[in-house]
Specification:
- The chain has 355 residues and is an alpha/beta fold.
- The chain has 2 domains: 18-44 and 268-354, Aspartate Aminotransferase, domain 1 (Alpha-Beta Complex); 46-265, 3-Layer(aba) Sandwich (Aspartate Aminotransferase, domain 2), CATH 3.40.640.
- It has 13 helices and 12 strands.
- It has helices at residues 18-25, 46-55, 64-78, 90-102, 118-125, 145-151, 173-181, 205-210, 244-247, 255-265, 268-288, 308-317, 341-354, and strands spanning 33-35, 85-88, 108-113, 129-134, 157-161, 188-192, 214-219, 232-235, 292-293, 300-304, 320-324, 333-337.
- The strands form 2 sheets. It has a 7-stranded mixed β-sheet, with helices on both faces. A 5-stranded mixed β-sheet has the order 1-11-12-10-9.
- A hairpin with an 8-residue loop joins strand 11 and strand 12.
- The radius of gyration is 20 Å and the shape is globular.
- The termini are far apart.
- It is an enzyme of class 2 (transferase).
């Protein structure tokens, strides 16, 4: 017996873990600076840590009340109905729920190239096919509604990322609305705002209240520092919000994840500290790294270094882990996550020596 034909599927390539790199290089983990996975340099929200510790003895119970409480809290945060909040196992879990709800076998989706590989992966898991629209280096990785619509051919789902990974560019709320206006009424526009807390551009969640063809993805992995517990969500139109009960994995957001998320939402100091550090880090990298960089609204900066794989490997030997972007189709670049001031300065110094 064999699995179904998976020849069109491509495995997701995550940034290398600090323990993995340390083992390969014969170093201690604390000798390395990991700036490859867009994680929070300050760790998880302290209030979330306290909640995890407090609720650890209750993990024998399914997260019924905590999930309801978190959906209510997020609904209040975004001024939507609680039924419009689809909790999931990370933002990628929310992408899966939307694919389950919207995609029929053989239908097509439109994804950015370069872009987050899981958009295409999720579509293919659900028996969809994938088309691409470009975000071009020659254009400074600018995003525009015109480019998306130029490549649109009636796809069932369009994925927009703002801020965009790995380039950091944004598509304005007006541009997102233009995409929705310019596509068929049966085309869903999914807006991935995983890095939204680091941007000064307003979220397009309010657009979900005006239209039934836009959904927004958010996550607790970045600004809240909860990547390890896998908690994300979608905000969807009220008209089809009830589909959640038919497509979600039972209790996909765990008791610990929900309790941590509730606490993290109240930890505004942690988020502000994180966002302030990212703003400083972006400016420091732009101003001090001796190579081409691109303006970013995320918690990372894309940098042109020549041979990204070689530079990444050499930087690791110097104790700094950055992301080789070959898997994004940008082999000449690396992506640097903004760390603490000390970490960011060390990364820039090491890369400048290599360059």
């Amino acid at each position: 017996m064999q699995p179904r034909d998976l020849s069109d599927h491509v495995a997701y390539e995550a940034g290398r873990g600090i323990e993995e790199v340390a083992r390969d290089l014969g170093l201690e983990a604390d000798e390395l600076v990991k700036l490859s996975s867009n994680e929070n340099a300050f760790g998880p929200s302290p209030k979330a840590v306290a909640a995890i510790e407090a609720y650890a003895p209750t993990v024998h119970s399914y997260p019924k009340s905590s999930a309801v409480d978190l959906r209510d809290a997020l609904a209040d945060r975004w001024d939507v109905g609680s039924g419009q909040v689809w909790l999931a196992n990370g933002g990628d879990g929310a992408l899966d729920y939307l694919a389950r709800a919207m995609l029929r076998p053989g239908e097509e989706v439109l994804v950015p190239a370069p872009g987050f590989a899981y958009y295409a992966m999720s579509a293919r898991y659900h028996h969809g096919s994938v088309n691409e629209y470009p975000i071009r280096k020659a254009d400074g990785f600018t995003q525009s509604a015109g480019t998306v619509l130029e490549h649109y051919d009636g796809e069932r789902v369009i994925y927009l990322t703002t801020p965009h990974n790995p380039t950091g560019s944004e598509l304005s709320p007006a541009g997102i609305e233009a995409v929705a206006e310019g596509t068929d009424k049966e085309t869903l526009v999914i807006v991935d705002e995983a890095y939204g807390e680091f941007s000064d551009t307003p979220s397009v969640v309010p657009l979900v209240e005006e239209r039934d063809d836009v959904a927004v993805i958010r996550t607790f992995s970045k600004a809240y520092g909860l990547a390890g517990i896998r908690l994300g969500y979608a905000v969807v139109p009220e008209t089809w919000a009830e589909a959640y009960a038919r497509v979600n994995t039972p209790f996909a957001a765990s008791e610990i994840a929900c309790r941590a998320g509730l606490a993290a939402l109240e930890d505004r100091d942690h988020v502000e500290k994180t966002v302030d550090a990212v703003r400083w880090g972006r400016e420091y990298i732009h101003g001090n790294l001796a190579c081409q960089t691109w303006e970013s609204a995320g918690n990372f900066v894309l940098c042109e270094v020549g041979d990204g794989s070689e530079v990444t490997e050499r930087a690791q030997r110097e104790g700094v882990i950055v992301r080789d972007t070959t898997s994004f189709g940008l082999p000449e670049c690396v992506r640097i996550t903004c760390g603490t001031r000390e970490e960011t300065k060390r990364a820039v110094a090491v890369l400048n020596e290599l360059l």
